[in-house]
## 1
Amino acid sequence: GAVVSQHPSRVICKSGTSVKIECRSLDFQATTMFWYRQFPKKSLMLMATSNEGSKATYEQGVEKDKFLINHASLTLSTLTVTSAHPEDSSFYICSALVSHRALGDQPQHFGDGTRLSIL
Amino acid sequence: QQPVQSPQAVILREGEDAVINCSSSKALYSVHWYRQKHGEAPVFLMILLKGGEQKGHDKISASFNEKKQQSSLYLTASQLSYSGTYFCGTGGRYNQGGKLIFGQGTELSVKP
């Protein structure tokens, strides 16, 4: 149980394009999801907390107009990288928490990640 | 503030033991441990919630010292499949909505 699907797994696009990444909880409801960015051989850097039905909470230094997050349902959060440039190239990973369970007392369930390459 | 993991990297022979430490400068509510293989998503290992708690399954266990604000992951009789990068994720004292801050990672390589 607690499967998270992330799509696409890999995307290559030209500079200036906007890219949307989907994160779906397949067998549970997720009021809270997280978006991370990871550079090669580096840690998971939390970008934002996505809450169903409300605005995302962004971490300090993350441009909210650049990384648009929408969590319109209990099973889907999307991250849109707007007007992407080569410096946005990275590995983006989402995770989800099971609704109706204590948020701090459960593991985060991760998607498989999206490798974004901007040419 | 990001927790500090040590060591940054370790190389083992199959069957050897290893300890990975995770220290925080802030009071902790929880410590999570994950293992990530290259290009893949992190895989959950265990969560520790109480001060002084110890947990384990199979040959991987962990301890959490709330007073010292640190946790240790113990890998015994290592197997090739243990190779990967281990991350600790720390949850704040007042349960910040499940948010975790991850350490910089410890790269573990197990050789035959």
## 2
Amino acid sequence: GQQLNQSPQSMFIQEGEDVSMNCTSSSIFNTWLWYKQEPGEGPVLLIALYKAGELTSNGRLTAQFGITRKDSFLNISASIPSDVGIYFCAGQLGGYALNFGKGTSLLVTP
Amino acid sequence: NAGVTQTPKFQVLKTGQSMTLQCAQDMNHEYMSWYRQDPGMGLRLIHYSVGAGITDQGEVPNGYNVSRSTTEDFPLRLLSAAPSQTSVYFCASSLQGGNTIYFGEGSWLTVV
């Protein structure tokens, strides 16, 4: 599958700070998805993006589908301790299979 | 509210043993898939199925078999376990053409 470059690899921040992470690809996608995974659990979908340029929010989370269709970012505002986890981006071109980034590990200190 | 159910949650195998990871979904989803997750590697697709009787290979299919005799079930078989297959395995499902893919809680497999 296509390689997705997700950065940063990890973040260690204080509660209340904003967080930004992004994902880039050498190939275009028709859909970008952002998942969160907590220890011992499967990934849970946070936001799905379906059109180039689309900006979508889900509570304190905001994600955008890049105009080139080769990138996406996720922002978390005013982080709280329960935001801790690994965040994955995933691209979907056609069909059903997802291409995942390697994840951004987020740690939030009170 | 079962969603995607995987069993077992944890398993230890000896090299050369065979076993089956079970996956069932109760959402009448056509599409089901298996991923493995290794440290620093993200999730990689092993096999997938777009409907009963239809399966295909993903990115890392070697050493694994699948079948899809019913819409609900999609078992993953390890024919002769190897230490390189030590990983966390996730089953996932979605509606045909759907972008919302639901994951099970994972199966932790260790091959010694």
